[in-house]
Structures are given as C-alpha cells and as structure tokens.
Amino acid sequence: VVAWAVAGAAAPTLVVAGVDAAALQAAAPRLRHYGTQSWLRFDGARLRDQGRWLPAADNALAARR
User: Fold this and answer.
1) Which neighbouring-strand residues pair with 13?
2) In 10 A of CB 27, how many CB atoms?
3) Which residues lie across from 41 on neighbouring strands?
4) By the 8 A CB rule, do 45 and 30 touch?
5) Can you tell me the distance from the alpha carbon of 46 to that of 56, in angstroms, rounded to the nearest whole number?
6) Can you say whether the dihedral through the CA atoms of 34, 37, 43, 48 is positive or negative?
7) Reported pTM
8) CA distance 31 to 8
9) Is 58 exposed, middle or buried (0-12, 13-18, 19+ CB in 10 A)?
10) Segment 29-52 mean pLDDT
11) What local confidence, expressed as pLDDT, does residue 62 receive?
12) In Å, what is the CA distance from 35 to each residue of 12, 18, 21?
C-alpha cells in the first residue's frame, strides 16, 4: 500500500493505493499517525518507508495562493 498527501488551500488531498482490499484495510488505521509525512509505503500493516516533500517554487506539488 502506498499513500501520498498534498497540502491544499482548503483541505489536504490524500491518495491511497493498494493491491487488494485486505492490504488497504491493514494499513488504513495507521494512516492517521503519520499526518506530517508526504508519503508512506506499507507492507500489510507494517510501515516500510516514509518521507516528506519540501515545497519549492518549481515543485508541481507546491500549493500556490
């Protein structure tokens, strides 16, 4: 399961993708504990990797107001 989050002006956007419903159900309860992260990678319920994207002027994911 992988999850990506992008801060937005009105609300953040979260995308979660998994290989099947069981994988999504295993990871879903843990997502709320990683609110400061930009992306996560799970193997079942186990967090495998995480990170933060730093905003930059040329970053397509940077929020612009």
Assistant:
1) 6
2) 22
3) 2, 49
4) yes
5) 30
6) negative
7) 0.72
8) 18
9) exposed
10) 91
11) 56
12) 10, 19, 22
